[in-house]
Amino acid sequence: MKVSLILTTYNCLENLKLTLDAINNQSYEDIEVVVKDGGSTDGTINYIREMASSFKYPIVWKSEKDTGIYDALNKGIEMSSGDIIAICNDLLTSNTVVEQFVDAIIKNNVDGVHSDLVYKDGDRVVRYWKMGEGKISNGWMPGHPTLYLKREIYEKYGLYDTRYRIAADYEFIVRILKDDEVKLAYIPEVLISMYYNGTSNSSVKAYWNSIKESYRALKQNHVRFPSLLIIKRTLKVFFQFMKASKAN
To answer: 48, CA 20 to 30 Å: which among 117, 211, 216, 247?
Structure first.
């Protein structure tokens, strides 16, 4: 099964280099790298062009302005051709990560897979996301950067709703998982190391805006008791930060 790894970037050349280097060391053979750049001016375009001619895997790329990360993700998905799609803007923690995700989907005959992840600021672990298995109705949420999904899930449920500026990934996950029809396997290992500079974790204000958008996403998808679920989710996040703090 071909895996399309969707990368979005805008003036983040150093992170892009690290992510592509991790991809280039993967053991899985059938990978397509899709890079949607937002019109960078820091040398990113020249770097992508250089890598596209020498990279281990084929690179499909485009550089043009977009309206934000979720618009870029949608365009990247539309550019892709893989049987499995994953958002890959962070680090893969070993050279077998993609292989592990694909094997889990095939062996369990499911629609997708997720794993544990860490948020890192340099070498320091800021947050340890160990969610296990659960249900949206209990405040559970798989880590979006670890989510590998079959293409037909996007074809059935649609792409990211760009009316959300911070929590479109949350709304998408709620949309596909709220009815328990999409089945996910779970790998209880840290397979993704996430850069700690995302849209929803860049400041207290951003996190508060994320909470408000998450509440809206639950209401939009007719999930019961949205306020209670937001509280449960916030507590889970708090304990993830506390666990990381004790580990450092």
So the answer is: 117
Rg of the chain's alpha carbons, rounded to an integer? 17
- Run of H or E including 189: strand 184-195
Crossing angle for the helix pair 226-247 and 204-220, nearest 10 degrees?
A: 140
| Dihedral sign for Cα atoms in the order 41, 47, 49, 52 | negative
Tokens of 73: 């993700």
Q: CA-CA distance, 248 to 132, in Å (whole number)?
A: 22
Q: Which amino acid is at 213?
A: E
Digit-coded pLDDT (tens) for 177-233 = 999 999 999 999 999 999 876 544 445 677 778 889 999 999 999 999 989 888 877
Whats the size of the chain, residue-wise?
Answer: 248
As a whole number of angstroms, the distance between CA 99 and CA 89 comes to: 18
Element (DSSP H or E) covering residue 18: helix 13-24
Strands 148-150 and 91-92: unpaired
Which residue's structure tokens are 């979005």?
8
H/E stretch holding 8 reads strand 3-9
Token couple for 109: 């005959």
